[in-house]
Amino acid sequence: MRPFTLQEAASAAGARLSGDADLVLKSVAPLADAGPDDLSFVSGARYRAAARDSRAGALIVGDAADAGGKPALIASNPSVALARLLDYLEPARKAAPGVSSRAVVSPTARLGTEVAIGPGAVIGERAEIGDRAVIGVNAYVGPDAQIGRDTILFTGAVVEWGCRVGERCRIFPGAVIGSDGFGYVWDGERHLRIPQIGVAVLEDDVDVGANACVDRAALSETRVGRGTKIDNLVQVGHNARIGEHSILCGQAGLAGSVRVGRRVTIAGQVGIGDRMTVGDGATCTAQAGVMSNVEPGQVVSGMPAEPHREFLKREAAADRLPEALSRLAELERKFTAKFEAL
Amino acid sequence: MRPFTLQEAASAAGARLSGDADLVLKSVAPLADAGPDDLSFVSGARYRAAARDSRAGALIVGDAADAGGKPALIASNPSVALARLLDYLEPARKAAPGVSSRAVVSPTARLGTEVAIGPGAVIGERAEIGDRAVIGVNAYVGPDAQIGRDTILFTGAVVEWGCRVGERCRIFPGAVIGSDGFGYVWDGERHLRIPQIGVAVLEDDVDVGANACVDRAALSETRVGRGTKIDNLVQVGHNARIGEHSILCGQAGLAGSVRVGRRVTIAGQVGIGDRMTVGDGATCTAQAGVMSNVEPGQVVSGMPAEPHREFLKREAAADRLPEALSRLAELERKFTAKFEAL
Amino acid sequence: MRPFTLQEAASAAGARLSGDADLVLKSVAPLADAGPDDLSFVSGARYRAAARDSRAGALIVGDAADAGGKPALIASNPSVALARLLDYLEPARKAAPGVSSRAVVSPTARLGTEVAIGPGAVIGERAEIGDRAVIGVNAYVGPDAQIGRDTILFTGAVVEWGCRVGERCRIFPGAVIGSDGFGYVWDGERHLRIPQIGVAVLEDDVDVGANACVDRAALSETRVGRGTKIDNLVQVGHNARIGEHSILCGQAGLAGSVRVGRRVTIAGQVGIGDRMTVGDGATCTAQAGVMSNVEPGQVVSGMPAEPHREFLKREAAADRLPEALSRLAELERKFTAKFEAL
After folding, report:
1. Do the Cβ atoms of A18 and A51 come closer than 8 Å?
2. Which end of chain A is more exposed for a tag (fewer CB within 10 A), N or C?
3. Of A42 and B193, more confident
4. In chain B, which residue ranges form alpha helices assigned H by DSSP?
5. Predicted confidence (pLDDT) at residue B145 exceeds the cutoff of 60
6. Mean pLDDT of all residues in A184-196
7. How far is B251 from chain C (nearest CA, A)?
8. How confident is the model at residue B342 (pLDDT cuts 50, 70, 90)?
9. What is the pLDDT of residue A6?
10. A268 contacts in chain C (CB < 8 Å)
11. Which residues of C are annotated as catalytic?
């Protein structure tokens, strides 16, 4: 990262400047690690004390009071300001346009302008690669697949035949889009494969984490809505439909034909059973096992998942159970004693 | 997919035809999406209403009554009929035989007839590749490994040294067969590696999903039985032995030396502890944590896993607990009042 | 494996010999599989009977009494002795030094002596590869990344730009070090990406299993301490810090900014929530969901995780609950009857 002035940072971050505009900073660092040459940030009042104690040269804050007298960038949402600043400062890592002599591109594939295709990448027949897309080292785009403009396939990412990836998507290393859904039927002697002739479709601005999998549909399509972000090692089963701007955290798993709405949060290691529906704006907390439909806006927890309030109530009751069992025994004893005494 | 007549579909599906044999259809689609040019299917009586309302041009059904007067293919098992039909209709995607000039094949490897080896694939010393096998783009077959006839390694799949994959297996993108088992012993200062000199063996007709892992054994072999199907992101630990025709769903994990019988169903995100045994025909429901042996035919749920009936009983009791605690307190109160009144 | 004498095995294993030093053995096998030409081992008194019944030609034992009269290697820790012996016997599989003509190495990369770089591997600009390191088939080392001496990247392993891997590490097939952390902030319209400009650092002697992921930090670094071993399909989120000599078993997941101490054991499918701390020497048992900090030395279980003793107590109480509910109802009935009788 190259050095930058506080003024420059304020402009990039869309923040109001407080203090020396010409102050030169060298990096951005977390509060605990920041030194006098670093810009850091305070993401809420609970970090005020840490901000005061920090050695950071300047701070991004939501409230001038959080800066403890240091030079500051003041923004209504410090995290958004940080994101914008980092986007400005991030070293340009995008591959230079061009097709590596070590790539294999079908003569029937269609490449947009300024496409970058890395060594070892393979582009299948009739595949289409949008303008400025990057197909990374050893990545694979199957026959008839489509990759949208400005999308990046990182090292070893796979998009299988006929699948479609939108614009500005990022498919991280080892992610697999459009592998066969897990579809078999027992024919009396063996699990007969049900050919998976559908596709997987990622709309625009979708991210898919490292080694995550989005399976192709049996017949029609598996679909991930615009702006949805999928973390590492997540499994999205065949025929699933995920709405826009949802979040699927690490190692979550969606079985077949699941419906997930818009702006849903699915926390880490959550499992959602076959054909379940999760409504818009719902949240499934970590490790939840969703075995029934989740209403819009609902927060569910536990296995089997239930409304979070019920989960807490049940947990609290369970905590009291050992003592309650003693009390029950005591009451039985007393009752018997009393009963016999009468 | 090319157009097909109902007669043609009936023959391929092994189904009885009802209606116009010459009806031309263009695709196969789920009930909700199907239009007049599509064949769809009804997998049970509960879909009868949907079938009646569907715009599908024809239906695969188990019972003529389910077709609601539409042209139909009638089969005792509609899912099997569908699987057969799709197998017939599926576009031929199999790679043409031949060794890519971008592949690296050891001169000591032995290739069968009509083998296809994709760009970037690497075949190690003394490896054997059976007739008509496909080694996909950037896939890897280690030294002394064996790949059976008609088996497909998809993009980036890995079969490590000395491991054996049977006939007609499908190893999906990024799956890793025969990486080192997780074996260490604490020597007082550090976790000393226990070299894993055994192998992993997949019998015939085994599928291994995208980014799934089947580790090699410490000493002898990890074995997956004939016809067993493994979903994406599943972990099979070293020395595990899995019987024939079992099913391991997405993100399930088997620790070391687990024994799984024949025709077992292991649902999504199930974990099975070290050295546990799961008997023939047993079922572990989603997210179960198996900490003790599972009897043949048993259905287990929960963490720690217990017989499903017990799990349900315990869940039902837990639901009643908060109210029971109130009743207990009330009874104590009444008893005290009464006791003191006496 | 080549044949070896019992004397040779004793020297390699650092064990005391009992029996015919010239006895020739051909392999090492588990007790159940071992034949007269095999050396096997007894890892504890509970395997004594199995040892007596075994057909093994010789045994590694902790106590001469466990050998049942067979030729034996006696070691205070038979597992350590076994590890040493296997290390001695393991066929040399290490790739021969040299850079494959099918690899792509940046002219600005720096390679140590006796480095092996396989076909399809790509080494980015200014990357540094230590002496005797092996960069496997189709593996990737990003720009400015560093790979320590004697470290092995297996097939398709990925180390992203600027990340550092120590000495004697093993990064198994498909593992991804330094992919972007899962960092977004909602800006009112969409999940805005927070650029992840930090790195991932693996200290010396770290193993990372097949298809496991260690994400790069948002700002500073994700760090895995010396000697820590990570199993297949594990997820380590951005900014996590893991101490020395810890163990993370298959499919465990650490969310962002987690702190894990030294010599911690994290069992299979455990999930650890954002910003949680797990103290030195603690153990999280299988499938635990850690939602609060874990004290040093503590053993926690369940979801939400609690001290193991509490977990067992709660489980035992839950087992008694259905019967307790009956007793409560009975007591209510008796009380009412008595009350009314009075």
Report:
1. no
2. C
3. B193
4. 6-13, 48-53, 78-89, 308-341
5. yes
6. 95
7. 8
8. low
9. 96
10. 235, 253, 255, 271, 273
11. 238
Tell me if A317 and B315 make a contact (CB, 8 A cut-off): no
Residues 6+ apart with CB under 8 A from B71: B6, B18, B19, B20, B23, B57, B58, B59
Rounded mean pLDDT of C16-30?
94
Pick A90's closest partner by Cβ from C143, C195, C316: C195
Beta strand C58-61 with C4-5 is: unpaired
The stretch A152-162 carries a mean pLDDT of: 98
Q: What is each CA distance from B91 to A329, A341, B96, B124, in whole angstroms?
A: 70, 86, 14, 32
A41 touching C, CB under 8 A? no
- Pick the catalytic residue from A191, A238, A245, A308: A238
Answer whether C314 touches A (CB < 8 Å): yes
**pLDDT computed for residue C51 by the predictor:** 83
Distance from CA of B111 to the nearest CA of A (A): 23
Residue B171 is inside which H or E element, if any?
strand B170-171
CA distance B337 to A192: 69
Axis-axis angle for helices A78-89, A6-13 (nearest 10): 110
Q: Is B227 on the interface with A (CB under 8 A)?
A: yes
Alpha carbons B177 and C124: distance in angstroms, whole number = 28
Residues from chain B that touch C138, judged by Cβ atoms under 8 A, are 120, 122, 138, 140, 156
Strand-pair category, C184-186 with C207-208 = unpaired
Chains that touch C (3 or more CB pairs under 8 A): A, B
What digits encode the pLDDT tens for the residues A165-177? 999 999 999 999 9
- In the predicted model, what is the mean pLDDT of residues B324-337? 89
The closest of B142, B105, B195 to C95, measured between CA atoms, is: B142
C52: confidence class by pLDDT, cuts 50, 70, 90: confident
Region C165-182 average pLDDT: 98
Structure tokens given for B48: 């009868």
- CA–CA separation, C257 and C273 (whole Å): 9
Residues from chain C that touch B218, judged by Cβ atoms under 8 A, are 30
Q: What is the pLDDT of residues B26-62, one digit of tens each?
A: 999 988 889 999 999 887 777 778 888 889 999 999 9
CA distances from A318 to A265, A322, A337, C216 (A): 27, 8, 29, 39
Is the ipTM higher than 0.90? The answer is yes
Residue in chain C closest to B120 (alpha carbons) equals C120
- Note the helical H segments in B164-307: none
CA distance linking residue C141 with residue C127, whole number of Å: 7
Confidence category of residue C67, pLDDT binned at 50, 70, 90: confident
Q: Any catalytic annotation for residue B191? A: no
Count Cβ neighbours within 10 Å for each residue of C128-137 and write b for 16 or more, e otherwise.
bbbebbbbbb
Helix pair B308-341, C308-341: axis angle to 10 deg: 50
What global pTM score does this model have?
A: 0.96
Would you say residue B102 has pLDDT above 90? yes
Residues C275-332 have pLDDT tens digits of 999 999 999 999 999 999 999 999 999 999 999 999 999 999 998 998 999 999 988 8
Q: Identify the CA nearest to A235 among candidates C274, C214, B209.
A: B209
Mean pLDDT of A60-81: 91
B184 reaches A (C-beta below 8 A): no
* Segment (H or E) for C327: helix C308-341
**Is residue B104 less than 8 Å (CB to CB) from chain C?**
yes
Scanning A274-313 for CB atoms below 8 A from C yields: 286-287, 302-303
d(CA A277, CA A294): 6
CB contact at 8 A, A165 and A214: no
Kindly identify which residue of chain B lies nearest to residue C27, measuring between CA atoms.
B219
Distance CA C228, CA B326 (A): 49
**Running DSSP on this structure, what letter comes out for residue C249?**
-
Residue A116 reports pLDDT greater than 70? yes
